Amino acid sequence: MPGDEQDPFVSMMAAESKVTLNLSDFSPESMLRVPEHSIQRPKFAAIDFHNHIDGMEPVEVLRIMDACGIEHLVNITMRPGTDGIESLTRLRATASGRFSTIAWMDWRDLHEEGFFDRSIQRLEQCVSEGAIGMKIWKDLGLRVRDRDGSLLRIDDARLDPLFVRAAELGVFIMFHTADPAAFFLPTDAHNERFEELSAHPDWSFYGSAFSREELLAQRNRVFARHPKTRFLAAHMGEQPEDLESLSAMLDAHPNVLLDMSARVAELGRQPFTARRFFLRFADRILFGADLLPEESMYRAHYRFFETDDEYFDYPSHASRQGRWQIYGLALPDAVLERVYRGNAMALLGMS
Question: What's the CATH number for 35-348?
Answer without folding.
Answer: 3.20.20.140
